[in-house]
Amino acid sequence: MTGSKIISHIDRDFVKDLLSKGERLDGRAFDKYREITIEPHVVPAKAEGSAIVRIGGSSVVAGVKVLTGAPYPDTPDQGVTMVTAELAPMASPLFELGPPKEPAIELARIVDRGVRESETLDTKALCIEPGKMVYMVFADVYTLEHDGNLIDASSIAVNAALLGTKYQEMKWEDDKAVATGKELSLPLQNMAIEHTVSRIGDHLVIDPILREEFVQDCRLTMAVDKDEHFTAMQKGGGAGPMSLEMIDQAMGMALESAKEIRKLITDTMKSTE
Fold first, then answer.
1. What contacts 138, CB < 8 A, 6 or more positions away?
2. Residue 62 forms beta bridges with which residues?
3. Angle at 100 between CA 95 and CA 105, to 5 degrees
4. Which of 49, 60, 83, 233 is a plausible cystine mate for 165, CB 3.0–4.6 Å?
């Protein structure tokens, strides 16, 4: 998610040499996240749910809009969910103005896949009238600061925003959707948080900072749900291979962090109810 890789060979050698000594640039253990903070309900006037998430020097805001519309023809009794992302130039000089480019599209697809594959939302419960009208849940991610690992920050922000979303109930009456005056929460049935591990040479590090992303051979992002099942995996960030042994190690690192991060999300959102 860096847009381009601009780093000298000296810096590459320095990062890799440090890892070979068992150290990271910011002093963390290889399997530890930076400090994570969640600030919910940050744009109540513009979104039904929202949250700012900070992981170290990276921060993103996610906003959720709930609209009504016609269902897809092949799923007439199911609502629609979609994640989009914008990499704002204010967050990093690596990002440019204009239509979404490959890094933004990739970010959105990875986070969207984590939501869909885990069946975070009960899409049948989002149906107002089969074949006529359903709720459409759009989660938009906007970057604020970029110091690496925007994927995990975005995943946490989207899940927090979904958990805090409130929207108007609609019923189908006289061939149209009519507001009942009742407020609903989204029909959440799961929560899968994405965890990104970078391979740099012979070493794996979770939650890479930007300088680590610059020198990574590849990364593996894993979505871990509430039952500690892996619901999605996505390799990217470089063409370097990752052995089965390394994949197993990365999965272990993700599982170690999953429960704590999920608890942080639920505790933070409960404290604002």
1. 64, 65, 66, 67, 81, 82, 83, 84
2. 51, 141
3. 100
4. 49
Measured distance CA(206)–CA(225) in Å, rounded: 18
Q: How far apart are CA 58 and CA 109, in angstroms?
A: 19
Q: Is 93 exposed, middle or buried (0-12, 13-18, 19+ CB in 10 A)?
A: exposed
| Whole-number Cα distances in Å, 208 to 23, 176, 197 | 13, 49, 7
Single-letter code of the amino acid located at 94: L
**Residue 145 CB partners (closer than 8 Å, separation 6+):** 54, 57, 58, 59, 91, 92
What's the rounded Cα separation, in Å, for the pair 86 and 155? 14
CATH number of 9-270: 3.30.230.70
| Chain segment 109-153, per-residue pLDDT in tens | 999 999 999 999 999 999 999 999 999 999 999 999 999 999 999
pLDDT beyond 60 at 228: yes
Query: Helices 244-270 & 150-163, crossing angle to 10 degrees?
Result: 40
Contacts 24+ apart (CB under 8 A), 30-33: 30/203, 30/204, 30/205, 30/206, 30/253, 31/206, 31/253, 31/256, 31/257, 32/206, 32/207, 33/152, 33/206, 33/207, 33/257, 33/261
- Using the 8-state DSSP alphabet, how is residue 162 labeled? H
Q: Is the pTM of this model over 0.85?
A: yes
**CA pair distance 10, 205, nearest whole angstrom:** 20
Evaluate whether 194 touches 141 at the Cβ level (below 8 Å). no
Identify whether the C-beta of residue 120 lies closer than 8 Å to the C-beta of residue 18.
no
Q: In the predicted model, is pLDDT for residue 9 greater than 80? A: no
